[in-house]
Predict the 3D structure of the following.
Amino acid sequence: MAALAKNSGGVTTFTEKKFIAMLDTPLESSGELHYTAPSYLEKRTLKPTPESFVLDDGVITIQRGKKRHTLKLKRHPRIAIFIESIRGTLAGDISALERSYQLALAGNAEHWQLTLSPTDKRMADILNHIVILGKQETINTIEIHQADGDYSIMKIEEVATP
Amino acid sequence: MRSARAVSITLWLLLLLTCAFIIERTQFSADLTAFMPSEPTKNQKVFIDQLKSGAASRLILVGIEGADTETLVSISRAMSRQLRLQQAFTLVNNGEAVDDEEKRKFIYTHRYLLSPAVDAERFTRAGLHDAISESIALLASPAGLLVKPLLTRDPTGETVRLLNSFNHDTGPQMYDGVWVSPQGERAILLLQTQAEGSDIDGQQHAMTVIQTIFDQITKAEAVSARLLMSGQGLFSVTSRETIKQEVQRLSIVSSVLIITLLLLLYRSFTAVLLGTIPVLTGIVVGIAAVSLGFGMVHGVTLGFGITLIGEAIDYSIYLFLQSKYNREEAHNQGWLNSFWPTIRLGVLTSIVGFSVLLFSGFPGLAQLGLYSSAGLIAAALVTRFVLPVLLPGHFHVRDVTRFGGVLIRVSYYAVPLRYLTALLLLVACTIIYIHRDNIWNTDLAALSPVSDADRALDTLLRSDLGAPNPRYIIVVSGDSIEAAIAGAEKVSAQLEPLVEAGVIAGYNSPSHYLPSLATQRARLAAIPDRDELTRRLQDATADLPLSSERLTGFIDDAQRARHAPPLQLSDLAGTPIALAVESLIVEQENRWSALIPLQAVTFNGHMSSIDPQPLQAALEKASRSSALFIDVKKELDQMYSGYLSEVLYLSLAGFIAIVALLLIALKSPRRVIRLLLPLVLAVIIVIAGLLWNGYRLTILHLIGLLLTVAIGSNYALFFDQRFHQGDGAGYRRTLASLLFANATTVTIFTLLAFSAVPILKNIGMTVAPGVILALLFAAILAERSTDLARPLLNRDAKGR
């Protein structure tokens, strides 16, 4: 985690698969992730439909087509808990994570696995757990397991620096 | 003689009994409609009706502050839970999902009737394919959680679309799912009472319930916080309370002061007691007359009762002080011959002045006119016919002759004072000239009995709630709900392009929540039968990850919708949608109006105004005459300035009527001019004084000036009469009575000037200086020959 905290940011690409019980095939999407420590995170989906999701210092902006939504995390504690899982991990902010989750770390520095289980009852009705896999100071997979059994797996790759 | 006395007393007692009977049955009102026109224009009518009984008049805004946001939110939750159990409220909303759940259920159940996306295209193969693809894309987005549970029954996404369009961006800020102010310093609740806005007792009950629940919760949780409440109905409650308290307080204080003053003057309890008889009779008759004439009495009129004391008390002072040496004569025959005609003329002048208000188109003013006229007639008649009869044989008040000397001296040294008066007039005219563009206060709020603090609180809570008073409204009328809604639908269709073009930021229409029957039927007709829908769905989902086998729920729901009757207004009762529709539909005498509030575009946080041109054009296209575009602020301003100019004209008419009356009575234009000069001077100087002190004139100041003229004319008449009848002996007694009449009047109006009720305050601060000046100027400008004043002065000097 200390290694993660040193990560000051950068651009990565992602591919995400959502496994939803009622759909015959998983939904795939891909795009870019931008992160600047400690509180700017952008998920820019390029395929199949462009969409952007920006977290900037506690404010979320979602842009989809012409529509734009802004949310202040302070006012939506449950959404905040969810978002905090990813931002907190990226920033290596253990104390922030421990406020809302029960943490379980397994593996070694070369191949670690962090499992986050929500402690809030109402949160647990929606989210079962989040698994984050990484190597040293980089994250390569985020799995989100919902309470209804649907889940998503997001693979993250470093953009090859020229 | 004896029988005549008995008749007077009997008639008087009968009158009092009748009035008491009428007043006992009188309805008192304290709503704001006293100052709304009784014959409004089409545009004005819409929001007056809204004020009186619209759904908006039943809303109460509640704010909880004075603790950290977490605590406020938990109080808000606890309060809502308890308030929802109360009969007194038809709606309790604090932003919690309780209502959202119900709303969602309603929208979900009726989605094929409500969704604007449902048309003939929607259920074709291509339409279904596009809609379902869109829903699947949404499923992968952050909104996925909302879409997922509905997908198999609502694969075309009508529910989510409707929820999005119903949840406006201007909604309140949330903290942990509860409404709070933008900075989080207040939790906000929106309540709708069972009681009508005009039902003040019902509103008061609702207020009490809220306060009690709040107190219980804060006590149980041992937290300290403050409760704030606002709303149209609450304004009525508060202003009724304020007026009641003020009228009580002022009545008591002014009675004590007047009685003390009169005791000092008369040195006789009997005289003081008798002196109040005309006043009380006047007040009682005034109220009863208004009750008979209007069917109800505005609280404001009641408050005005105190001002009547100021004038009516003068009558008995005149009688007691001026008749002293005549009391041995049978029933003051001397006083009746020499003084009564003057007082009668004075009363007539006052009544003529006030009765013009009867022609006002505003019930508040008309009531004032009737109240004053009836009250003064009664007070004068009682002074003339009842009071002399009641005077005991040994009736005696202190000799106050020497007080008259003061005015005599003023009168004597008047010639140099006349130059001073001319100078004063010049200064006053200059001040008025300097302020000539800012003489009138054009804000309707200047009349409202609601205090500035209460209004500020309302604005604050409204902005917290993101629901400012709408300034622009389109009104579509028809002779049925259906016609009004169909009209609103047509207008909405024309407004869409204006939203796109950025002319307006948005709009709300009852047709969003309750489409016209024709539209609903058209939507249902678009749904094909079961076999056809199944076939189309199979085609549409062939290349999608969602197979049509999973969508049997959708087919069932669509078939059920197809055979369901269209939604009516009555179907909405008890749902959260009802408030949205009811607040946008007004019924008045079998005419239905749909309200479409428009949202202006915001520039840098400032609401810009809406250009009426493109809107008028859009309305032209939508319907020929049934739709009106209303700028509420402009209408209110116009209403007020119409009101102001009406009172101005009425005051002028009153003045002309007074001149005419005096011309007939005195038969000498010269005397009339001389008589009116001090009054006109007093009026001009009071106006200048008000402007100089930063006030702008309202209707109430005008009424105050009218009162000044009415009261002051009595003074001027006495000076005039003394001169022309040349009765030197009673001169000082008359002047003394004027001095004391003036002192009591000034006392009362000074008290009013410090009242918390703006109406009383403005009248008080106009009349108090006005009558002092009127008396002074009457003394200074009185026509006199030196042979009249000088011997009196000499005698006065010798007497010491």
